[in-house]
Write a structure and sequence with these properties.
731 residues, alpha+beta, PH-domain like, Recoverin, domain 1, ten-stranded mixed sheet, seven-stranded antiparallel sheet, 27% helix, Phosphoinositide phospholipase C
Length: 731
């Protein structure tokens, strides 16, 4: 890779340009040179790469399948909205060289925070080492500090430099640089905590570690076994491990590990009861999944489905329309969005529906059912064949639906009638997602249509019967009120509501809405006015138990942070069990009246924000700019619990800011609360800039001294950036 490789960069069937790609000496950036012009420029940074896919795994490469074999093709997928890079190597060997090489380079991001920290400093070292001699003089060290968000007094920096320069050569190299880095990252607050429990101030004995785990971390089960496990796992000294003691370095590594995280590691895996009916779960859901940009002129792509599924999404939208040559296409009807073949969408869903979850959110196998909305509906087994009609009912428990794909859609008449025998045709079809599509359906019902959407004669036009007969489980129906829905009592039906209609129902009949969602599925979708693919807050919909709250996954922000935060638990399977009072058909709960919830009274959440570690710079900031970080803690839940508080800002220190501030919140319905930690760069003249965030359900919080490993705006890890906090929960 460092020698360079001539490959084809492809954007379409006709756009195929030869480029000379080369990995730079820093092992962090890839440059390319145009064969025609000879111009050299940066192609991408390793830190921007999410994953590498082999073969024909993009629309462009699929269109070139007959021209180029899969073993020469690969796709580089980037974080955020940046488009994929499709490349064709000259040989299968060259392709493998780049595929395996890139995977090796991006692998360190999955290391523990402590190890990631060393990877991080190595990368900065290589950037600051201007003359590439593997040594660093004091001027280069000053440059390094600026790059790392550190505004350090020059005299203090020089003192650290001289202490580390054991060879007195005026430069740092090898072990000297490690010494400098350890002095730079000295955590006084962690040292103080360590010494509070260490009798000699140098180590924690097994019993001292047990005391810390019980008194501060509130670990009350198998504490001695846990202490032994932590020493074996995180103590770097072999001698200390043999003596069953933990050094200060080992103590810090534990605090930075998954066991020292604010997120309960036991809740990262599948931990909830999966034997409940489908309507008893919140389901990770996306809107117009095929779009990766706006709703009017945006690009439709199978990439939207791949990204949503890898993010843990279990409910996807497939808008099917008649296409050329009788082949259906998927796009946002009556807009200028591009179209993709329905065949490619189905192929993509088959391939990715049950793959392993996103490691940045917690690994978990997507064995659980995936719900797909569109104009075709059926229940499909993992072998791709349809299940028998009526094989699944609304009371079917989630456990029985593993490895199944449930498709919902419109239907002529009742499912029960179809199973009993033929019936007269009827126009009982559901609401569509927005006004434009609903109007088109009405137009079609009046004048008829063809093929994929409708079929009929001059006298009577209906949905195509063959299409309708596919619907088994989730029949779309118009919502005409809670009383009518209850009188019909058909849990096999599902209604889709706009965010505005849902808000009105929450306002006017909160308890009825909660009861309705104990036995029937409800889907919420964004307003048609959100042409920019913005999102509404899903929290108010979850507060009344709506299961399928569809969001635009392509748009980063607080709304998607809440979605990721809720579904990052339970093995990232995309299903989260609703609390007991939202599964009881006779419940009295109303989110506007917290007192209606049965159970213990409110609890108090106390958060001491202690410090921050190696916070990232604001994107597109000026060279040499250093952030002034503050921390805001937000509570998202029922209206009575909605709150936020923030710390003061720390001037010119994104490397190791220290706040030591205590924030306190009262939670009336903790079962529905999400806690969002946001770091911002304070600006007194304009809006603060986003630095990082982490969101989790209150139920997943571990008390005690904990690290919060921050995520970027699009929900990806940014190691080793973190916050150090102390959590206390009391009644």
């Amino acid at each position: 890779m460092q020698q360079g490789t001539l490959m084809r960069k492809v954007k379409s069937k006709s756009w195929k340009k030869q480029r000379y790609f080369k990995l730079q000496d820093d092992c962090m950036t890839i440059w390319y040179q145009s064969k025609r012009t000879g111009k050299t420029e940066s192609a991408f940074s390793i830190s921007d790469v999410e994953t590498v896919r082999e073969g024909h795994q993009s629309e462009v490469l699929q269109s070139l399948a007959e021209e180029f074999p899969p073993e020469r093709c690969f796709t580089i997928v980037f974080y955020g909205r940046r488009g994929n890079l499709d490349l064709i190597a000259g040989s299968a060997e060259e392709a493998q060289c780049w595929v395996q090489g890139l995977r090796q380079l991006i692998e360190p991001r999955s290391l523990t925070s402590a190890l990631a920290s060393f990877t991080w400093i190595r990368d900065w070292f290589q950037k600051a080492d201007k003359n590439k001699d593997g040594r660093m003089n004091f001027k280069e060290v000053q440059r390094l500090l600026k790059m790392m968000n550190v505004d350090m007094n020059e005299d203090h920096a020089l003192l650290l430099f001289q202490d580390a320069d054991k060879s007195e050569s005026g430069t740092l190299e090898g072990e000297e640089f490690v010494l400098f880095y350890k002095a730079l990252t000295q955590r006084d607050e962690v040292v103080s905590l360590f010494q509070d429990f260490s009798e000699d101030g140098k180590k924690l004995t097994l019993l001292e570690l047990v005391d810390f785990l019980r008194q501060e971390q509130l670990e009350d089960e198998g504490t001695e076994e846990l202490a032994m496990e932590l020493i074996d796992k995180y103590e770097p000294s072999e001698t200390a491990r043999a003596r069953h003691v933990l050094s200060a370095d080992g103590f810090l590594m534990y605090l930075c590990s998954p066991e020292g995280s604010i997120f309960n590691p036991q809740h990262r895996v599948l931990w909830q009861d999966m034997s409940q009916p489908l309507c008893h779960y919140f389901i990770s859901s996306s809107h117009n999944t095929y779009l990766i940009e706006d709703q009017i002129r945006g690009h439709s792509s199978i990439e939207g489905y791949i990204r949503a599924l890898k993010r843990g999404c279990r409910c996807l939208e497939v808008d099917c329309w008649d296409g050329p040559n009788g082949e259906p296409v998927v796009y946002h009807g009556h807009t200028f969005t591009s179209k993709i073949p329905f065949r490619e969408v189905v192929s993509t869903l088959r391939k990715y529906a049950f793959k392993v979850g996103n490691p940045s959110l917690g690994s978990g196998c997507h064995r659980w059912p995936s719900v797909h909305g569109g104009d075709v509906a059926a229940v499909w087994g993992s072998d791709g064949s349809p299940a028998p009609q009526g094989a699944y009912s609304p009371s079917t428990i989630l456990q029985e639906l593993k490895h199944k794909i449930l498709l919902k859609g419109k239907k002529i008449g009742r499912l029960e009638d179809m199973l009993d025998g033929p019936e007269d045709e009827t126009h009982d079809v559901s609401d569509d997602d927005n006004g434009a599509e609903a109007e088109e359906e009405r137009r079609r019902m009046k004048v008829g249509g063809s093929g994929w959407g409708t079929a009929g004669s001059k006298d009577k036009e209906t949905l195509a019967q063959v299409l309708s007969d596919c619907v088994v489980y989730c029949k779309n129906v118009s919502f005409r009120g809670f009383q009518e829905a209850r009188s019909r009592s058909r849990p096999s039906e599902i209604s889709s509501l706009s965010e505005a209609k849902a808000r009105k129902l929450i306002r006017d009949a909160g308890n009825e809405f909660v009861r309705h969602n104990t036995w029937q599925l409800t889907r919420i979708y964004p307003s048609g006015m959100r042409t920019d693919s913005s999102n509404y807050s899903p929290q108010e919909m979850w507060n009344v138990g709506c299961q399928i709250v569809a969001l635009n996954f392509q748009t980063a922000g607080m709304e998607m942070d809440l979605c990721d935060g809720l579904f990052s638990q339970n093995g990232c399977c995309g299903y989260v069990l609703k609390p007991p009072f939202m599964r009881d058909e006779e419940t009295l709960f109303n989110p506007s009246d917290p007192g209606s919830r049965e159970g213990p009274g409110p609890i108090t959440l106390t958060i001491q924000v202690i410090s921050g570690q190696q916070l990232p710079k604001v994107s597109n900031s000026k060279e040499g700019a250093i952030i002034d970080p503050l921390v805001r803690v937000e509570i998202h839940g029922v209206p009575a619990d909605q709150a936020h508080q923030e710390t003061k800002y720390i001037e010119n220190n994104g490397f190791n800011p220290r706040w030591d501030e205590t924030l306190q919140f009262q939670l009336h319905v903790p079962e529905l609360a999400l806690v969002r930690f946001v770091v911002e760069d304070y600006d007194k003249t304009s809006r603060n800039d986003f630095v990082g965030q982490f969101t989790l359900a209150f139920a997943n919080i571990k008390p005690g001294y904990r690290h919060i490993h921050l995520l970027s705006k699009d929900g990806t890890n940014i190691p080793p950036s973190s916050l150090f906090v102390h959590i206390r929960i009391s009644k």
